[in-house]
């Protein structure tokens, strides 16, 4: 198989962008093409480019620029701000080739890169933005009075995207914040800055220039997170902070924001569940469950666990095992590749605990080379299926209770019940006791089961029935979660609403 073509991305200098100007800074980071070798002394990945690294002065300047721009941008009519979405889609389509090349060079499988592009296009097309615009202002008559509900921007939104899928997260959050009327500051992660700075500078900034946005409406720089987050917490000019990351750290950060009178918008860990009922489409359910291995499970909205009706468990697990066996390591430019390298050995303790408690290893669990050969230093982790019998047993296992963030799918088979109605109640209760809440999905052929599921499952920002678990859904909120996924105010989130505040008005004759 040919080596990845990184000729075009190599050599690019990615600048900071503050107050409408590109800044080439003295300090730089040099991101590298992702290594797929088990022996790094033999294979040294090439440099992908150079990215300006901001210091304290640039961090302060970015916030100051946003503070100056915020009232001017807030005065732009909402219809003009929401028109940014379709313009972004057009420019994204024009830049898709280079953006995809950067993602692939950073190690993102091309198949996932294409999915990210499609997802962004669906979030911000003309129909979506018309729908969004209709949510920020409602007006009706009450006798001789006019009643108004309207959302105003909070002011300055600071965004701390995750290390994984950073470009997607940074751009979608920034665009939502801008459409709401906020000025935006983005910290670009140091791990993979190339695709993120490219998308912000060469796709989103031109959209703002076309809209005649004031300088400082969008600012971004690459930096390590801790000092930047401290600055944002202490700077009175920052109103909202959108934080992506681990739940433990994120919930602590929420408390720090509250202490300083700032709004924390949290996008934290997930621990999604797919329920497969006895009358489900087995092929459809299998394909939905395979989403657990996209990006080696390092996507927060990938399912971590499945609950399978005992009457179909053996057949479904057998079909899933065959399907998972075909998921092998590959180069990111290969259209069939799903897996990405998995650092560390967190999987060892998780699997050991589960097996000691009686779980059955259906397949997987080994480290693999790019060729798919078992190797203790292999950069990939083999897709892994665990079977656990009994909801009670499953609830006590880390593999079920926590987000694992590696390619593991735990298959929970409840003990048989004489009454399916009682079994469904037990399953719904199991889902509602999940401390995390991004998505839950169900596969069933029974409309009554589907209605009970939708009415009874209160955990999660999104519920899906007979739909792919991973995909975003046109017009519906793309962000948010409950519990440890979204904090104490967690819910399904349109970021443009979450980073604005609702005001009512009454106008007499």
UniProtKB/TrEMBL annotation:
PROSITE patterns: ALDEHYDE_DEHYDR_GLU (PS00687). Residues 48-491 form the Aldehyde dehydrogenase domain. Transmembrane segments: none annotated. InterPro entries: Ald_DH/histidinol_DH, Ald_DH_C, Ald_DH_CS_GLU, Ald_DH_N, Aldehyde_DH_dom, Aldehyde_DH_Superfamily. Pfam families: Aldedh. One of its GO terms (molecular function) is oxidoreductase activity, acting on the aldehyde or oxo group of donors, NAD or NADP as acceptor. This is Acyl-CoA reductase-like NAD-dependent aldehyde dehydrogenase.
């Amino acid at each position: 198989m040919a080596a990845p073509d990184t000729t075009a991305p190599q050599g690019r200098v990615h600048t900071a962008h503050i107050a409408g100007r590109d800044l080439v800074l003295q300090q730089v980071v040099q991101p590298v093409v992702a290594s797929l070798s088990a022996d790094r002394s033999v294979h040294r990945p090439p440099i992908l480019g150079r990215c300006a690294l901001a210091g304290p002065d640039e961090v302060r300047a970015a916030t100051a620029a946003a503070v100056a721009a915020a009232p001017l941008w807030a005065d732009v009519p909402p219809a003009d701000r929401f028109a940014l979405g379709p313009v972004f889609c057009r420019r994204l389509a024009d830049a898709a080739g280079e953006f995809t090349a950067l993602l692939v060079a950073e190690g993102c499988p091309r198949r996932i890169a294409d999915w990210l592009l499609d997802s962004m296009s669906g979030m911000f097309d003309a129909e979506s933005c018309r729908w969004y615009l209709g949510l920020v202002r409602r007006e009706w008559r009450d006798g001789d009075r006019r009643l108004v509900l309207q959302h105003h921007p909070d002011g300055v939104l600071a965004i701390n995207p995750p290390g994984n899928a950073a470009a997607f997260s940074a751009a979608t959050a920034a665009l939502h914040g801008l459409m709401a009327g906020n000025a935006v500051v983005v910290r670009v992660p140091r791990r993979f800055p190339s695709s993120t700075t490219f998308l912000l500078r060469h796709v989103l900034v031109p959209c703002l220039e076309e809209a005649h946005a004031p300088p400082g409406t969008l600012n971004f720089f690459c930096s390590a997170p801790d000092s930047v987050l401290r600055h944002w917490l202490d700077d009175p000019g920052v109103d909202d902070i959108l934080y992506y990351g681990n739940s433990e750290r994120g919930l602590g950060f929420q408390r720090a924001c509250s202490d300083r009178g700032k709004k924390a918008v949290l996008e934290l860990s997930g621990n999604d569940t797919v329920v497969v009922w006895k009358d489900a489409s087995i092929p459809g359910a299998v394909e939905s469950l395979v989403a657990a291995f996209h990006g080696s499970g390092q996507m927060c909205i990938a399912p971590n666990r499945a609950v399978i009706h005992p009457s179909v468990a053996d057949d479904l697990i057998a079909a899933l095992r065959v399907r998972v066996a075909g998921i092998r390591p590959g180069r990111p430019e290969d259209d069939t590749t799903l897996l990405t390298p998995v650092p560390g050995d967190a999987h060892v303790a998780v699997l050991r605990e589960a097996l000691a408690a009686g779980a059955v290893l259906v397949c997987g669990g080994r480290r693999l080379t790019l060729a798919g050969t078992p190797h203790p230093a292999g950069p990939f982790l083999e897709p892994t299926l665990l079977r656990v019998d009994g909801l009670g047993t499953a609830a006590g296992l880390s593999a079920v209770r926590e987000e694992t963030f590696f390619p593991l799918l735990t298959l929970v088979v409840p003990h048989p019940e004489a009454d399916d109605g009682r079994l469904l109640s037990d399953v719904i209760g199991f889902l509602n006791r999940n401390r995390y809440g991004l998505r839950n999905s169900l596969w069933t052929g029974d409309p009554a089961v589907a209605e009970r599921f939708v009415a009874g499952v209160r955990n999660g920002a999104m519920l899906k029935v007979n739909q792919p678990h991973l995909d975003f859904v046109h017009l519906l909120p793309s962000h948010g979660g409950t519990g440890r996924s979204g904090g104490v105010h967690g819910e399904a989130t349109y970021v443009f609403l979450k980073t604005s505040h609702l005001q009512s008005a009454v106008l007499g004759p």
